[in-house]
Inverse folding.
C-alpha cells in the first residue's frame, strides 16, 4: 500500500504595501530629501514611477533605475527608514506572528525592494535570513547610494518569475502581493494561487486577474483553513454606518479593518448581514429591524439611544450597545473604539445595556464568549463542557445583570472542535463566538 505523502506548501510574500503599509523607497526619499526645496515634486515623481511599475505600465527595471536616481540617500538615511518601517508593518501581519514562527521554513519574502531595509524589518517575525530575496544597493566610499546590483534577477522585469524558476521549489506555492510583479507569478504558472492583498492599496488591474482578493492576512489564513490570531477576519464583518457620522469615527473603524458601508438612511437590505451598526444622533432602528439583525453584535450611538432603539430587544439578542450619555464631541472617536474593543477583546466597558467588563489580553489561549439568559445553573453547564473535554481554563470572567449573563473563558490553545457545538447548544444560550 502506497504511503500518502503530503505536499509541502510555500508562501511567497511581497514586502512593499503588503508586509508593510507603505512603499519603502517612497518613505526613503521623504527622509533623504526632507529639506530639499523641490521635495514635493520629487516625492510625486517617485510615487508615479512606483505606481506605473506596480500596475504594469512601466517595466520594473526602468522604474527602479529612475527611483534610485532620485533618492539622494545614504546609509544614515537607511537606518532612519528601518525605524519607520518597523512601525508600519501591516496590522494583520503584525497580529499573526505565531503563523510566521510556525511556518518559518515555508515563508519566503520576495521583493523588488532592498535587503538593507527589508531584512531588519522581517527578521523579528521569525523569517529566516536565507528566505529573504530582494535587491541590494551599491555605494560610494562615503556611504552614499549610487545604484543597485544589476545582476540580481529581482532588479529585472519579471524578476520574481526568474527567481522562482531558479529556486525550483517542490510543493504548492501561494503568492501574496499587491502589484504587477506578483501577478506575473500567477501568469507564469509557477504558483497555484495568487492572492491580491488590499489592506493598504487596491489596484483594479491586479484585482481583475487575482485568484482571490484578500483584504487582510487574516482573510488569507481563514480561506486556507490555517491558524490565525483572530477567529474570523474583520474584513468579513459588515459595519453599517447611518446618518451624519463624523469622518473621524468612520476612519477609526475602517482603519481597524472592518468592511464599511456608510448610508444617509437605514437600508433594510443590509439588516440580515450587518455585524456592527454605528448611528448618528437622531437615527432610529425599529423593533422589527432589530429582531431581524441576527448577525448584529454591537451598536454604537452618537447620542442618547434609549428612545431610538429598544435596549430590551438588543439585550435579549446579545447585542451590546454603546452610546453617548453626555453628548461629548470627543465620543466621535470613543464610541467606535468601544465597539472595536468589544469585537477585538470582548470588552463591554461603559456599555448601556450589558454588564461592564474590561478584559486583560492573554497569549497562547483562545477566548470564548458565551452570552446567555441569567438563569441558575448555566455557568455550571458551561464548565461541565470544558471538564468533559479535559480543557484547561486559563482564566474566566462572569458578569450579570437582571437579564443576561456574560461569560468570557480563556482556554488552552488546543481544544476539541466538538466543544464549540456543545457550548452553542446549552439551553438559554443567546450568542456564542470565538474571539481568537
Amino acid at each position: 500500500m502506497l504511503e500518502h505523502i503530503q505536499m509541502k506548501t510555500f508562501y511567497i510574500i511581497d514586502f512593499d504595501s503588503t508586509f508593510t503599509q507603505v512603499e519603502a523607497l517612497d518613505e526613503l526619499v521623504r527622509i533623504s530629501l526632507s529639506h530639499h526645496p523641490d521635495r514635493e515634486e520629487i516625492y510625486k515623481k517617485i510615487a508615479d514611477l512606483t505606481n506605473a511599475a506596480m500596475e504594469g505600465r512601466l517595466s520594473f527595471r526602468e522604474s527602479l533605475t529612475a527611483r534610485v536616481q532620485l533618492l539622494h540617500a545614504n546609509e544614515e538615511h537607511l537606518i532612519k527608514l528601518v525605524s519607520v518601517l518597523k512601525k508600519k508593518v501591516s496590522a494583520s501581519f503584525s497580529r499573526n506572528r505565531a503563523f510566521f514562527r510556525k511556518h518559518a521554513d515555508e515563508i519566503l519574502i520576495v521583493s523588488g525592494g532592498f535587503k538593507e531595509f527589508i531584512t531588519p524589518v522581517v527578521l523579528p517575525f521569525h523569517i529566516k535570513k536565507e528566505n529573504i530575496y530582494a535587491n541590494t544597493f551599491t555605494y560610494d566610499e562615503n556611504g552614499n547610494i549610487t545604484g543597485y546590483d544589476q545582476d540580481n534577477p529581482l532588479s529585472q522585469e519579471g524578476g520574481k518569475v526568474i527567481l522562482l524558476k531558479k529556486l525550483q521549489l517542490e510543493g504548492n506555492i501561494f503568492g501574496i502581493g499587491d502589484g504587477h510583479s506578483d501577478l506575473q507569478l500567477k501568469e507564469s504558472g509557477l504558483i497555484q494561487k495568487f492572492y491580491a492583498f488590499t489592506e493598504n492599496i487596491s489596484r483594479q488591474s491586479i484585482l481583475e486577474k487575482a485568484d482571490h482578493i484578500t483584504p487582510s492576512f487574516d482573510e488569507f489564513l481563514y480561506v486556507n483553513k490555517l491558524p490565525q490570531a483572530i477567529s474570523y477576519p474583520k474584513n468579513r464583518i459588515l459595519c453599517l454606518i447611518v446618518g451624519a457620522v463624523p469622518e473621524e469615527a468612520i476612519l477609526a473603524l475602517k482603519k481597524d479593518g472592518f468592511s464599511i458601508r456608510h448610508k444617509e438612511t437605514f437600508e433594510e437590505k443590509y439588516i440580515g448581514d450587518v455585524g456592527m451598526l454605528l448611528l448618528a444622533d437622531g437615527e432610529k432602528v425599529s423593533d422589527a429591524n432589530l429582531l431581524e439583525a441576527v448577525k448584529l453584535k454591537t451598536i454604537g450611538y452618537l447620542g442618547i439611544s434609549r428612545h431610538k432603539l429598544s435596549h430590551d430587544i438588543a439585550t435579549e439578542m446579545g447585542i451590546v450597545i454603546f452610546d453617548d450619555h453626555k453628548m461629548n464631541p470627543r465620543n466621535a472617536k470613543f464610541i467606535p473604539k468601544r465597539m472595536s474593543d468589544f469585537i477585538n477583546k470582548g470588552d463591554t466597558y461603559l456599555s448601556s445595556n450589558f454588564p461592564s467588563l474590561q478584559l486583560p489580553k492573554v497569549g497562547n489561549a483562545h477566548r470564548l464568549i458565551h452570552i446567555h439568559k441569567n438563569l441558575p445553573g448555566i455557568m455550571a453547564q458551561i464548565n461541565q463542557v470544558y471538564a468533559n473535554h479535559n480543557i484547561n481554563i486559563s482564566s474566566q470572567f462572569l458578569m450579570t445583570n437582571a437579564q443576561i449573563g456574560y461569560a468570557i473563558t480563556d482556554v488552552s490553545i488546543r481544544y476539541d472542535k466538538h466543544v464549540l457545538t456543545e457550548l452553542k447548544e446549552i439551553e438559554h444560550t443567546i450568542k456564542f463566538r470565538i474571539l481568537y
Remarks:
- The chain is about 35% helix and 20% strand.
- The first strand starts at residue 9 and ends at 13.
- The mean pLDDT is 92.
